[in-house]
Amino acid sequence: MGIEGHKVEPRSQEFVIPQEVMLGPGQQLFDFAARCLSEFLDALPVGNQGLQLGFSFSFPCHQTGLDKSTLISWTKGFRCSGVEGQDVVQLLRDAIQRQGTYSIDVVAVVNDTVGTMMGCEPGVGPCEVGLVVDTGTNACYMEEARHVAVLDEDRGRVCISVEWGSFSDDGALGPVLTIFDRTLDHESLNLGAQRFEKMIGGLYLGELVRLVLAHLARCGVLFGGYTSPALLRQGGILLEHVAEMEDPSAGAARVHAILQDLGLNPRASDAEFVQHVCAAVCTRAAQLCAAALAAVLSRLQHSREQQTLQIAVATGGRVFERHPRFLSILQETVMLLAPECDVSFIPSVDGGGQGVAMVTAVAARLAAHRCLLEETLAPFRLTREQLAAVQAQMREAMAKGLQGEASSLRMLPTYIRDTPDGSERGDFLALDLGGTNFRVLLVRVATGGVQITSQIYSIPECVAQGSGQQLFDHIVDCIVDFQEKQGLSGQSLPLGFTFSFPCMQLGLDQGILLNWTKGFNASDCEGQDVVCLLREAIGRRQAVELNVVAIVNDTVGTMMSCGYEDPHCEVGLIVELEVCGSLEGDWELLEHSVWHREMLERGRPRLLCELTTGWSNSRVQQTCLELAVCWGEEGKAFTQGTGTNACYMEELRNVASVAGDSGHMCINMEWGAFGDDGSLSMLSTCFDASVDQASINPGKQRFEKMISGMYLGEIVRHTLLHLTSLGVLFRGQQTQRLQTRDIFKTKFLSEIESDSLALRQVRAILEDLGLSLTSDDALMVLEVCQAVSQRAAQLCGAGVAAVVEKIRENRGLEELTVSVGVDGTLYKLHPHFSSLVAATVRELAPRCVVTFLQSEDGSGKGAALVTAVACRLAQMTCV
Ligand code: BG6
Ligand code: GLC
Ligand code: GLC
After folding, report:
1. By alpha-carbon position, which residue is closest to atom 2 of ligand 2?
2. What's the family (predicted)?
3. Strand 848-854 vs strand 816-823: parallel, antiparallel, or unpaired?
4. 289 lines ligand 2 (CB under 6 A)
5. How confident is the model at residue 771 (pLDDT cuts 50, 70, 90)?
6. Which of 45, 213, 225, 599 has a CA positioned 20 to 30 A from the CA of residue 502?
7. CATH H superfamily, domain 16-110+356-380
8. Ligand 2 pocket, 857 CB below 6 A?
9. Which atom of ligand 3 is the closest one to the Cα of 501?
10. pLDDT of residue 2 exceeding 60
11. Mean pLDDT of the chain
12. Which atom of ligand 1 lies at the shortest distance from residue 432's CA?
């Protein structure tokens, strides 16, 4: 690149490959290439560092990347051992390294036809075909990506190397083959292969002429019936000879001279005959080549639905260079066979070298981008040691928190001393506040199991962030509405309140809100007993009687509800994902996205199922519309569930703030705040810092912000912004969309990472977000999503490992069998999250056998069970 713009200054040197190298061991061939390369570079003013090489390798290969190409089989005059089935780029890299003089990176490999096409200036139309007739023959062209099955693409075009040399290896051209073609094939290195090439390629034209001339001599038609050793020796007549003799301007004298050079004794009439043979062989070659090219061109014309296809074909190879007539026959025949194509033939200037350099430059840019991507994502990729350190820090913070010492883990006692024993019975009300949805539930615990009826209510943003009184009045209104709908008015059922925020509990029915988390910020609540606030609101609304028995964190509810089925369940875990946003807007996604539908069928349906039976699309739509209506005028639901947290059964003797030495107590860890004392700062990336700064509670809930909910989408968005500023993504163009906070909903992570999605669907999803991107972009976005959610799952796993190891050590067990009850949309719906959590736990807590139970109707049911246990105990006390 000079000041005047693009300028290509090719230098080149040719080396003849000795035949024994072409037929010897592969290593020898690549060593030869590396040696030639050094020799060439020695004579040039280039340093020996950081050179980037493009490799034109003209044999049939399976290419799986710009720099990855496996040789299928040798063609033409080559048959080196140990190369077929190998990646030729790697073989060349190894040879260059063995040579040791230059440090060169092989960044791209292309077929010669591709180099020819890429280096060509457009003619009347764009140059979209490369045609080579050298020792062998082949063509490449730009195919519509949607026609290429192995590609995960539906737009754009991709260059296809036809490898037409092997056309008719299945016998399609049988009737056209002559006895000479059969003999030539028999004597060739690759019997039965490249049958089409063997009628066209320069390596074979001389040979075909020789076989015909020898036959005619033997029949006595030529040379007085005499032959010569050259005429009988394979390779005795070369392309050069044929080209020269066939040239109509070559006089009989010249033909004579050549034949004499071949040791023959031509008679006067022989020259004309020989010229005839040469012309016949070459004409057939050019016509066959034209037929193949016409097939390619009319395919292009059809698939592009153009009346006339204007196109340029780049030509390269010695047959074109030495054989002017070849091109003119080719042109004539193409015109005849594909009259609707207006073709200009453009000879390549430097044997395709410029095209190879072009591809190399592109590949080098992509490789540089990949490096930057890797660098950017490196801080997200945690090593086993880092995860073990998180586990150890968590253990330390747990111990301190339990002792009442300064710690980012509050380790709050819940006054729950036992998991259910199965004898609980009765009807209970439950409230569930702090997850994605606010729900009121009626829970019937009976001999046959637990039966739940529930309804979702909206908590508009203005209420969640308004006054406390307003919030609790709203809650009571919802309960009253629910009671009316369920015919429960006037009954005072025992009520359990799932309240998923950090509370300091002094008893089962006393919980002082320490601070709001997630999207809540109602005034005058922090420092207050939430049960009192609820009772006061009940009081304000006369004529309702409610008996609030217990307040429960969602983790505890989840553990309890799983514990009802599995007595080993002594841990509760929540990993939430925000879901709602505007349902109206989401409906579009509902329609388009597989994942969302799956979500409706597996996750939220607990909520939606109650309103629907049977899943027809229109029914889902109707339900959503209904919900949108009931969720506020603008159809806007407030997103709340963004947390992560865990609880577990601790030995009472370890809990400093509660009296007693025997038995257990469930501890609400409030692990979302882990690291708020700075202990996670080594792991925190600059993207985490940006997300934290922009949140409503900067500096708080640092662990939560690396694991759960909407934060992941924001981390991804910040990472993408950074990659864009480096020019790695979106061609370096910052879009308004990407700068919009929260556009990148965490659900897209699940959606994008879903294995069933093809890359082009990933791209469609991103385009839905208003981001226009190439497939390379889509792949990188996918990798960013994977890195961010993988870290989230691993950190979560490190936390669980700390908890189960603590339980094991508490009990002095060699091995602990324990179950973890889990809830939360991220955990349940992300395609890889749960398995990554489990794998991390296995790795970091090898002496614990941990089963993860997905809680169905988690904490609502749990709250009812806690209430049931409390009622049972109260009755026993009465008796
Ligand atoms: C539900 C619980 O089952 O799961 C909620 O009832 C809890 O209390 C929720 O917060 C967690 O999941 P999410 O992601 O839906 O908020
Ligand atoms: C052979 C090779 C092909 C190459 C052509 C021209 O047919 O298989 O890859 O393009 O020769 O060199
Ligand atoms: C937040 C809350 C916590 C809750 C979690 C999951 O971290 O502080 O109490 O358990 O979210 O909902």
Report:
1. 59
2. Belongs to the hexokinase family.
3. parallel
4. no
5. confident
6. 599
7. ATPase, nucleotide binding domain (3.30.420.40)
8. no
9. 9
10. no
11. 85
12. 8
